[in-house]
């Protein structure tokens, strides 16, 4: 093994590591938050968006879409609101007036939660709900409506039979059968997904759904890539898609994930990630560890206290990513049969017109 040379002076090492006064300092980027955690940290448990202070009405306003939603939800502002009035009086104000804030922030830094993986899952869920509503002819957004549920059951049976896509089937471990790969393949229109999903929808609605599918697919691919992106072109595409949805389907709900994708993703990429897609901030790796966390928690961690339990799980997870252990791990030579089958020519033309530098 090569001899490890420890630098004697303060210096910046690689990948967010620095040597300061003989101690290694690790820069931690806090970006892996789901909506619940973001709400706990920034105190905005009742907010429509954890990046901007837009209300539910503003999120559905075409004027706001055209002018853009600034990332303006700041922790300092939230603290200031509490400082101005008595806490009990403040919480009695209407939600819009207190910007969706439900408790004092427990974080001292602003919350920029990228969540590129969940963007795929949540936006695909919204897209499928749009199809179910159109199939049921029910143009009021109510996912629990009986007609919409009947359409959902019928369409997911068709997709399973004709395309082998297991979509929106509840899982015994929570969540649904929809994975990122399924969402990506459906957005890429593999196995004639759109044809089968819209087999009993009005002909006039199909081109609208196709355009939304193409645009959302391209935006999601950009967000989940590590490519250098032309952010102004991406902004144009996002705003065009957002406005198109509001005009064509004014009755459809704009979910927080869809709003975040179409109004903030290009800004997060441009202002917080050096113009590159958010692959480096993806929660995909930590999500892939969920099954190990369950196994460690049940079988390989102390149950003497919550702290002991969590500490043992974290130690085991750190062991899994230890470079010395990893280099001895068996690696499969099997490679994913990708690229050639993962393409969709129309989407690729649009995608490549926005990418400045491909990292592949
Ligand atoms: Zn927002």
When the domains are counted, the total is 3
Taken as a percent bin, the fraction of beta residues is under 5%
Bound molecules: zinc ion
Find the structural class using helix and strand composition: mainly alpha
Distance between the termini: 31 Å
Radius of gyration, in Å, reads 23 Å
Tell me the number of strands.
5
Unreliable spans? none
What overall form do the CA principal axes indicate? globular
Output mean pLDDT. Answer: 84
Q: What is the topology, as strand order, of the major beta sheet?
A: 1-2-3
Helical content (DSSP H or I, runs of 4+): 40-55%
Description:
By secondary structure, the protein is mainly alpha-helical. It folds into three domains: 30-113, no CATH class; 116-281 and 350-357, no CATH class; 285-326, no CATH class. The chain is built from 17 helices and five strands. The strands form two sheets. A three-stranded antiparallel β-sheet has the order 1-2-3, with no helix packed on it. The longest helix is centred in the middle third of the chain and has 21 residues, at 116-136. The radius of gyration is 23 Å and the shape is globular. Zinc ion binds at residues 49, 51-52, 54, 69, 259, 263-264.
Features:
single chain; 360 residues; mainly alpha; 3 domains; three-stranded antiparallel sheet; two-stranded antiparallel ribbon; 17 helices; binds zinc ion
């Amino acid at each position: 093994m090569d001899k490890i040379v420890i630098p004697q002076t303060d210096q910046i090492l690689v990948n967010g590591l620095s040597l300061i006064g003989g101690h290694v300092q690790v820069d931690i980027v806090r970006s892996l938050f789901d909506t619940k955690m973001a709400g706990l940290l920034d105190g905005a448990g009742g907010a429509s968006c954890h990046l901007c202070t837009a209300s539910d009405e503003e999120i559905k306003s075409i004027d706001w879409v055209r002018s853009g939603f600034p990332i303006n939800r700041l922790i300092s502002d939230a603290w200031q609101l509490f400082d101005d009035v008595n806490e009990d009086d403040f919480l009695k104000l209407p939600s819009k007036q207190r910007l969706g804030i439900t408790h004092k922030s427990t974080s001292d830094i602003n919350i920029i939660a990228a969540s590129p993986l969940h963007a795929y899952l949540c936006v695909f869920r919204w897209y499928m709900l749009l199809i179910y509503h159109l199939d049921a002819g029910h143009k009021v957004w109510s996912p629990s409506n009986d007609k919409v549920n009947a359409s959902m059951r019928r369409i997911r049976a068709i997709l399973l039979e004709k395309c082998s896509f297991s979509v929106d089937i509840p899982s015994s471990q929570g969540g649904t059968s929809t994975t990122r790969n399924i969402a990506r393949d459906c957005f890429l229109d593999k196995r004639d997904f759109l044809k089968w999903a819209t087999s009993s929808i009005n002909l006039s609605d199909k081109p609208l759904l196709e355009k939304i599918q193409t645009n959302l697919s391209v935006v999601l691919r950009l967000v989940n890539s590590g490519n250098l992106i032309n952010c102004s072109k991406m902004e144009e595409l996002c705003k065009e898609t957002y406005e198109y949805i509001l005009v064509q389907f004014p009755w459809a709900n704009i979910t927080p994930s869809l709003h975040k994708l179409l109004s903030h993703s290009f800004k997060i990429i441009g202002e917080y990630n050096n113009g590159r897609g958010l692959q480096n901030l993806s929660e995909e790796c930590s999500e892939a560890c969920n099954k190990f966390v369950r196994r460690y928690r049940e079988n390989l961690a102390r149950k003497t206290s919550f702290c002991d339990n969590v500490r043992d799980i974290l130690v085991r997870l750190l062991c899994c990513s230890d470079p010395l252990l990893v280099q001895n791990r068996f690696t499969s030579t099997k490679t994913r049969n990708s690229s050639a089958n993962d393409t969709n020519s129309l989407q690729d033309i649009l995608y490549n017109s926005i990418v400045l530098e491909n990292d592949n």
